Amino acid sequence: MVDVKDKILVFPIGIGTTTMGFVLLETIVRNIGPKAIVCSKGEPLMSSGALCAEIFYNKQFPIVDQIDFSELEKIQTGTMIRVNGDEGTVTLL
Fold first, then answer.
1. Assuming Cys at both sites, which of 43, 55, 76, 90 could form a disulfide with 16, CB separation 3.0 to 4.6 Å?
2. 30 φ, ψ to 5°?
3. Residues of 37-55 as b/e, b for ≥16 C-beta within 10 angstroms?
4. CA dist 8 to 18, 42, 56, 82, Å?
5. Considering Cα of 35, then 42, then 19, then 10, what sign does the dihedral take?
6. Cα separation, 4 vs 39, whole angstroms
7. Distance between CA atoms of 49 and 23, rounded to whole angstroms?
8. Alpha helix segments (H runs only) across 43-85
9. Strand order, beta sheet including 63-64
10. What does the mean pLDDT of the chain come to?
11. Comparing 2-6, 16-20, 82-86, which segment has the lowest mean pLDDT?
């Protein structure tokens, strides 16, 4: 098991299940989850957790997708990045 608290998760494609949005929502509400998610292709069931967190708990959780996979490959474990969910950008620091 890997602790993802306060990490930014970067992966190519989200694979959603019917519970994925609820799990993400729970981690956001309890402040035990990642800071953001960056992927090349988002998944609606995953995004539903972030959307519900904002609607019901007034907690924002950035998910940035539509990032070219070749750009994602540059981000290795430990790479410092900045995610701007409002603008949909990812910056390598």
1. 43
2. -85, 0
3. bbbbebbebbbbbbebbee
4. 22, 15, 23, 9
5. negative
6. 16
7. 7
8. 44-57, 69-72
9. 8-13, 36-41, 63-64
10. 91
11. 16-20
DSSP 8-state secondary structure symbol assigned to residue 88: T
**Span 30-74, pLDDT tens digits:** 999 999 999 998 888 889 999 999 999 999 999 999 988 888 888
Share of residues in the chain with pLDDT > 70 (%)? 99
pTM over 0.85, yes/no: yes
Domains of the chain: 8-92 (3.50.30.10)
List all residues 6 or more positions away from 92 whose beta carbon is below 8 Å from its beta carbon: 74, 75, 79, 80, 81
Question: Considering the chain, what percentage of its residues have pLDDT values greater than 90?
Answer: 65
